[in-house]
Amino acid sequence: MKIGVFVCHCGENIGRTVNCPEVSKACASFPGVVHSEDYKYMCSDPGQNLIKQAIREKHLDAVVVGSCSPHMHEKTFRKACASAGINSYMVEIANLREHCSWIHEDINQATKKAIDLMRFAVERVKFNQPLETIKVPVTKRSLVIGGGISGIQAALDIANAGFEVVLVEKEPSIGGHMSQLSETFPTLDCSQCILTPRMVEVYQHPKIKLLSYSEVEHVEGFIGNFKVTIRRKAKSVKEELCTGCGLCAEKCPIKKKALSEFDEGLSNRPAIYVPFPQAVPNVPVIDRSVCTYFKTGKCEMCKKVCGREAIDFTQQDTFVTEDVGSIIVATGYKLYSIDKKPEDSIYKGYGEYGYGKFKNVINGLQFERIASASGPTSGEMLRPSDKTVPKKIVFIQCVGSRDESKGFSYCSKICCMYTAKHAMLYKHKVHDGEAYVFYMDIRSGGKNYEEFVRRAIEEDHVNYIRGRVSRIYEEDGKLIVKGEDTIAGLPVVIEADLVVLATAMIAQQEAPKLAQTLNISYDKYGYFQEAHPKLRPVETNTGGVFLAGACHSPRDIPESVAMGSAAAAKSLVLFGADMLEREPIIAKVDATTCAGCFYCQKVCAYNAIEKKEIRDRLGNLQKVVAFVNSGLCQGCGTCNATCPSKSIELIGFKDDQIFAQINAFAEV
Amino acid sequence: MKNLKAKDFKQKLIAITSQDPAQCYQCGKCSAGCPVRDFAEAPPNRVVRYVQLGLYDKAMTSPTIWLCAGCQTCTSRCPQEFDLAKFMDAVRELAIAYGVKSADKKTQEFHEAFLKQIENFGRAYELGMLIDYKLKSKDFFQDVDLAPSTFSKGKLSLLPHNVKGKQQIKKIFKESGEVKK
Amino acid sequence: MKLGYYPGCSLNGTAKEFNSSLKEVFAALNVDLEELNDWSCCGATSAHVTSHILSVALPARNLLIAKKQGLNELLAPCAACYSRLVSSQQELKLDEKMRMKVEDLLEEKVTNGLQIINLIQIFQKIGLDKLKEKKQVDISKIKAACYYGCLLVRPVDIALPDDMESPDSMEAIIKSIGGKTVDWNFKTECCGAAHSIAHTDIVEKLCKGIIDNAQKHGADVIIVACPMCHSNLDMRQLNIIKHYPDHKPIPVLYLSQLVGLSMGIDEKKLGLGVHYISTKPLLEKIKSDALPTEVKKEVPAPPVSNDKIKKGVEA
Q1: Which domain holds residue C206?
Q2: Which of A93, A564, C76, C154 is most exposed, with minimal Cβ within 10 Å?
């Protein structure tokens, strides 16, 4: 085997602490090396040409490059070699930068180590084999989980590009939290006015299949080829017959037993209901936990009044499966509540703010409902306890957020902005009212955001007080808010009529379960983890699964929309080719020695190990062995290390390659 | 004011409290809930700020450290889980150790008078403590009207109770004195 | 049941009614108290505010005595003593250097395993059913404001296993003996504690706030389990009466006194005669045959004139 060695200076990065010409000289004497040289930037065009030229002139079979981490330029060098006629996988990289020059100071010793690293790579490459990339077909359909603004955006982008989308929403209607908001920052345009056209577009789009009141139950397969099982929860209403006339909800005798989720518990809804007038789809569902019929077997009022015979008490949950090539997770967030938490919760409640026992201490979403024209007060600024106009209102930021003692360390990011918006909306409705905002820092990074906050302070004269509130208690119908102005260094006590807490955004409770179903990672708070914090922000570690919106971290509307579009673009990249190419670095089972113990199956994090029956010519079952699904295998090597009979090899990292490296080390 | 070695103070403070004042992000929740806040010129969070800025003398001469009632409301509500009550104890202890003139002599004298009884007798001897305190503070007339009724209720004993294991207690006090040096 | 007993200095002096009521109640409940031999002061507030080593070593001496006496459980009825003893125990467990220093000073090895309990915990241990059984006197005519102060609920990791912001374990005890309690806002606000002597003015203002809130919510009596809280709220009420002519005195009882009353124990034995604020009207109310006064619908207070945001020391 003829091996060529190329040592890169990486400008001064390697050259400063490693004597590259000496390394190159030393490599020339290694057995099998027929060519060795060094160059300032091997990744540059002239550098690559040096490699190509040497391959052609000296008929090289394999190449070793001493350079930066393979994460950076392995692809570059593989392509260069391929264009000169040798297989991409006959190239090895010795990491002389991250593993040597950057971490050492002594030139002599670093040079010695660099020579060793090169020798290991040369010994290894002798056992490399030419490999071909794996090709898998792509199902050009997408699944979007979550019908909030982020999921809506992703679904519309993909559908408008001409591909089918299955949109799954667990609630009876799409729209998410955005549909609950009154106005949006920093423009104060009406949230529903800008959202509902998008919702309608989703409903009418021929390429979008909307499955409302449904949840993802099970996912199998791999990038380009997922099979998803979806539970369609029983609505007790036949969707295809219902016209959405609303008569059933109007006549339902249960009016007060259920709190409206849409109004955040500030109003009641019937047992059969659509969450809000512009709901999409405009089909009611029966909440069986409060419905008289489901509790006592009597009533059937809705059934009696429905002219279309759409009510079906016998309906059961059903399951559908969908084949898709990509999955976009847009499951959104939940608001942290200050209520007392169970012992095992990772969060604690706010006893100092009353654990939610004061009616006039509300959260941000409840304030949105009070401020909204479609809300329980029709947009009139009235406090919950006695429906009077609050003349003095206190907003408290960072409730939960940035509070280690309650279990959080992160900043919820959007609260500074929505609190400024709330204070403004209040001042616009109650001109003689006083608004106070307790804040720790004002984080208003974003286009026109800082200007918006200044407007609240300078034009609407909202009183901003820097400091956290220590306690809230109720006395004679007033809420006593005890704070400190840390700028003036003075105590502040406000007797408020209404207190609005900017409670933290937290991950959905079921997020970890969904993450396990999708095989993606999540952090300690339950937020889904991106593949790379800077360069792969919407991808996950599982190919073909992308993230959008607040299920990843606290996000405002513009960011959620941008992320929705980004995730859609990532899906479309996938759909751009008919076949998917992927690295051939996967595990392979030797069926002749496999004993079928399936330890490998237990340790595989990607569910890539399957069972395969071995039969003789007559069709009699000989044995059952492990089989690697090349689409799912990520080449991590865990099965390889676990296999007791050494029947699994990781292609590209075979035992003989690794042993050659180790032996070379032992020779030092 | 003594010229304090900055490093020395901070190191000692961290050693006593096992926490770094850098942990405090100055939200002021401690001050907002402090029962003696209204009587203190510098709110408790500002005392932490002094230490964060290296103004150790300002921290040690602040009357706030003596006003702290040790109620732990701050500690239990701190979003950063900073034990401010412990911090206050340590700043006070260091102020005594560095011989900084107390900004709240009365409180310091009270504590000294109280501890002196324990050092001498092993238990708190309230009458002795009051006499000792009044001699020090020269505040002879405070509470004199309470004295007769307190005696008649049998709440103040005229003689101290002597603990037998006094030697052990003396030793503990001696060690405490050593630490301060 | 046999129990180690650490009365602490206050219970031998200013809080002797706490001591006597407690002994009476436990005698009635068949709980033997074995006092710690030659116990010494825990150092109270003064030790921990001035010297870390004092605050650990002084209580440690008593912990060692308890072990020597073969006690597994030690009752420390004073909330301050309880807090200091537990803190010291905790510190000795976590800080090895400190433990070695203390062992050196006291010439003895520190051992674990002693359980320190306060008044509320011992009642919980005896069982609220048992208290209910022993009930003889109807105390439902009076309404009690349970005042926890600081050291029963803070710091959270060593205090009562109760909610620091809205505790209710004392209420549960009182309810079990047929008493009524009020829901109020100053259950865990500090009374000023050790400032009683050096800063009487501060204690007076803090106590005024606490008492006002209890009365506003309809309390006839404030119940405490801490001698410091008691002396501040009871004795310092005399100062309040002097400075606020409108002030309506309210008696302050130890939890053990109220429990004793419900058991029909003699008032004198419970030390109800040595309070600064007379307990007579309260005792009369308990005995009165009149039906319990109906809870008056609270008239909404007129809008607070002092409506401006309160800023500054004098506001």
Answers
A1: 135-287
A2: A93
Residues of A in contact with C206 (CB under 8 A): none
pLDDT of B103 above 70: yes
Answer for the pair C202, C168: CB distance below 8 angstroms, yes or no. Answer: no
Question: Are C13 and B160 a contacting pair, CB within 8 Å?
Answer: no
Is A477–C300 a contact, with Cβ atoms under 8 angstroms apart? yes
Q: Of C15, C9, C25, whose CA–CA distance to C270 is shortest?
A: C25
Q: Facing residues of A67 across strands?
A: A95
AA identity, residue B24: C
- The series of mean pLDDT values per 10 residues for chain A, 668 residues long, is 96 96 96 96 96 96 96 95 95 97 96 96 96 92 98 98 98 97 96 96 98 96 94 96 94 91 96 95 96 94 94 96 98 96 92 96 98 95 97 98 95 97 97 97 96 98 98 97 97 98 96 96 97 95 96 97 98 95 92 95 91 93 93 90 95 94 85
Residues of chain C contacting residue A491, judged by C-beta atoms under 8 Å apart: 310-312
Q: Do A335 and A506 form a contact (C-beta atoms < 8 A)?
A: yes
CA C306, CA B48: separation in Å to the nearest integer?
32
Instruction: Give bridge partners of residue A273 from the DSSP assignment.
Output: A285
Do C92 and C108 form a contact (C-beta atoms < 8 A)? no
> Chain C residue closest to A493 (CA)?
C310
Q: Is B28 on the interface with C (CB under 8 A)?
A: no
Of A475, A485, A491, nearest to C185 by CB-CB distance is A475
Q: 3-state class of A629 per DSSP?
A: coil
- Nearest CA-CA partner of A548 in A112, A167, A290, A193: A167
Chain C interface includes B114 (CB < 8 A): yes
Of B73, B90, B163, the CB nearest to C154: B73
Mutation target vs C (from A475, A487, A497; most C CBs, 10 A cutoff): A475
Crossing angle of helices B166-180 and C96-106, rounded to 10°: 140
Q: How do the domains of chain B map onto residue ranges?
A: 6-97, 105-170
Domain boundary among C89, C119, C149: C119
Q: What is the CA radius of gyration of chain B?
A: 18
Distance of CA A542 to the CA centre of its chain: 11
Cα angle value B96/B97/B99 (rounded, 5°): 65
d(CA C309, CA C315): 9
Longest C-alpha distance within chain B, in Å?
A: 54
What kind and span of H or E run contains A63? strand A62-67
Q: Do C310 and A477 touch (CB under 8 A)?
A: no
Fold of B6-97: Fumarate Reductase Iron-sulfur Protein; Chain B, domain 2 (1.10.1060)
Q: Which residue of A has its CA nearest to C301?
A: A476
Tokens 């056209």 sit on residue: A197
Q: ipTM exceeding 0.95?
A: no
**C295 in contact with B at a CB cutoff of 8 Å?**
no
Q: Distance (Å, rounded) from C-alpha C193 to C-alpha C202?
A: 10
Give ∠ CA C101-C103-C105 in degrees, rounded to 5.
70
The segments of chain C whose pLDDT lies below 50 read 292-293, 295-297, 301-315
Architecture of the structural domain at A587-651: 2-Layer Sandwich (3.30)
Q: Decide if A466 and B29 are in contact by the 8 Å CB cutoff.
A: no
The DSSP secondary-structure symbol of A3 reads E
Q: Using an 8 Å Cβ cutoff, are A433 and A409 in contact?
A: no
Contact (CB, 8 A) for A63 and A81? yes
